[in-house]
Amino acid sequence: MTEISVGLIIDCMRKVSNRDIQADTDIFSAGVDSLAVLRCRALLKAQTGIKVPGHVFFGGRTPAGIADLIGAENAGR
Amino acid sequence: MTRGWDDLLRGERWRSPDTLWVEDGTEHGWAAVDELAAAVEAAIRACGPGRVVRIRSGSKLGCFAGQLGAWRAGRVVVADHGDLGPGELDLVRPDLTLDVTPGRAEPAVPAVPAGPVGGPDRPLPADRIPGSVVTVNFTSGSTGSRKAVAVTRGNLLALFGCRGLDVPAPGGLTAGSFATPAYDGWWFDTWRTVAAGGTVVCLPGVNEDVFAWPELAGTYGIDRLLLPTAVVAALVDAVPDCLTGIPWLFSGGEQFQVSTYRRAREAGLTNRFVNLYGPTEATFATHKHELPTDLAADVVPIGAPLDGCAQRLDGGELVVSGPLVCLGYLAGGAVAEEFRGEFRTGDLVRADPAGDLVFAGRLDSRIKVNGLRVDAAALEHRVATLPAVADCRVVQDERLTVAFVRTPAGASADPAVRDRVESVVRTFSPAIGVRLLDRFPVKAGGKVDAAALMDQHRATDRDEEQ
Fold this sequence. Notes:
The complex is a heterodimer of chains A (77) and B (466). Chain A is built from 4 helices and no strands. Chain A has 77 residues and is an all-alpha fold. In chain A, helix 1 (6-17) packs across helix 2 (34-48), helix 1 crosses helix 4 and helix 3 (54-60) packs across helix 4. The N and C termini of chain A lie close together (11 Å). The relative contact order of chain A is 0.21. In chain B, 48% of the residues are buried. In chain B, strands 11-12-13-14-15 form a 5-stranded mixed beta sheet. In chain B, 29% of the residues lie in helices and 27% in strands. Classes of the chains: A mainly alpha (77), B alpha/beta (466). Chain A binds chain B through residues 18, 31, 33-39, 41-42, 45, 51, 53-55, 58, and chain B through 205-212, 234-235, 237-239, 410, 413, 438-439, 441-442, 456, 459-460.
């Protein structure tokens, strides 16, 4: 899975949350809520065509962690 | 009444191979669900006498077939999709817990008794709950802790027979299912559909795969879908495409905002919207308002009473009666308070020029701020109808009163919007804080999470002080 990079997740999270998100920012501690996650998933789908499930965000918590989980899920398929 | 109930539980159609239920990519026929329910019924009977059965299942089909089996065994059933806590269980005190798992390849796996839970050492008498009671509704707890409402078979049959909730479905009704069994929407989504001989299609959760909804809607021809008001607002805002292809969207639980409707139309959605109103104490819904295709009003009414609901106003408070009103509250596994045929909603309403009822706040919405009475509902309404404002919620704790204002994306940073909101709020009380947000946190059931709003507010305040 190369289409969804940490950088792309950071870009999308910043757009939907208006917050300064870094690769290692815990997005939920930074005040991102489930609706922002939904918007982010919609953006990722619009840009890459990939449907990322919400649990990846809740489990990954940081852009780097989220990208890792997306990679792991796809490697397992 | 008993005949209609028996026909629902044991009618001929339970032998049909036609699809009754779709969940997680698997189609289940009526006969397969019947088989699972028979296994549940046999397991219950094998455990001896008892009044209340808790059906625990990670699948909605397990909950549904568990309800069918428990009803056939003559029990009060509480379906637990993993979201009932010890507090809720203590209200009903099940004598028996069954774990129900529909098999992947096999149509049914026998239920496994898990022993008594939450109850005292000696079994409670069976007559602690009247024979007419078949299940329980849990209130959302937005006006206190959750309560258990005793629902009778007459309540459910009245709901199933309520023509005002029908939608056109020439090829047979197919309903999407969003609610879990802990919410009264379950009766509308699943049992009301099944009573009409229809098909239930379980939709993946918003956080799982909301993007799969249009495909499921297309494949199965979903005619209607019920969603909590806050979920409609979130989806219309963030992923409106997920709602395409479902002709009728029902919504309830909270005030339907005009801004949600406008946003839906701006996003090109052509769905018909139905705003439902009704306390959990009246089975599911008592009033409905079908939104016109061109909405001009500045507030969405709760509308007119459904057939089977009678209403009266007492000092502006809506009081409902009729067969939809439940028996009463349960506590400690027995009836603790009876409604005696009518339920005081605690909601203030007024009639609009067309005769439709409009929600005008809670009886208890008059809060005190610095010793002065403030009508929180009136404040919320005034702010919510300002330009560039989607919704407003006043939250009070022991220290603070804050008007939380939801604005369209980006507008929360706009000083002009803030000025307008503040000038309205100041006319109510200068001691009420204002916070503009792009979105409101919601609870699992889809209602706005007032406690989380306040927590977030305090956390942000601390950050700003540092």
